[in-house]
Design brief:
302 residues; Pseudouridine synthase; alpha+beta; 8 helices; eleven-stranded mixed β-sheet; Structural Genomics Hypothetical 15.5 Kd Protein In mrcA-pckA Intergenic Region, Chain A; 34% strand
Amino acid sequence: MQKNRKSPVSKKAGTSVYTVKEPMELLPFLLENMKKNSRNSVKSILTRGQVSVDGKMVKQHNHPLQPGQSVSIMQNQAAIKENTLTGVSILHEDEDIIVINKDAGLLSMASKNEAEMTAYRQITDYVKNDNPRNRIFIVHRLDRDTSGVMLFAKSEEVKEALQANWNEVVKERTYTALVEGVVRKKEGTISSWLKESKTFKVYSNPTDNGGQHAITHYKKIQSNKLFTLLEVQLETGRKNQIRVHMEDIGHPIVGDKRYGATGNPIKRLGLHATRLALLHPRSGELVRYQADVPKAFSAKVK
């Protein structure tokens, strides 16, 4: 079968135009011609209304294409909206959820007394660009100083469905942690009970102290004499869990003075939410979203 490999016949004003060579559905056609984009990215481009067939906007993945038709992709429509975002980038968007990569230093959402820019406020403004009645809902949060994958719902129903069944819906929560010192074990599991003090610091105890049981799994990726890079899997999702558990094993996260770090050579907390895999709230399909590990982390273990 002849493939639809073909450079755009034109590319101006941010729009790429492709000519259909053989009958096929729209999504496979886009995947074939947009090999530099991930499958999730291509789906998002469709959902955002950036694709037109013979001048008419089409969002359906299975829209049938016939030879001779023209498929236009407006590359800059999302870019114009996303250029207004500071400290966040869109990893995936569909009619139910938005997945972002949040920078370190940005609050997930503000308290009632805070007016600073947050991930929640920016993504709210982003969806309201399309329709002022659009809203978003936080499904889970990241600490201000933790970067990486964060999930929002586009309706209260989706948010509640995800939160109510979080442990069943979420199949993977992987973080990358840059910690102080040389972690000797190739992998390990940390289990303890975590309880928050009146000063909002979380304390760990090996036996039940009336707090919440927390379990963290880790694997060693790379190390040198000063630092170790770890892949960390959460079995439970407690406040400051990874930060406390790294202190428990004597290897606090780089830059985390609150939990035992001695310095901050990367000028940020060495913790990044790398991957989130879950059952999609509408299709039930297992979907996985990933944010690249910050280069500063890898540079410190070379």
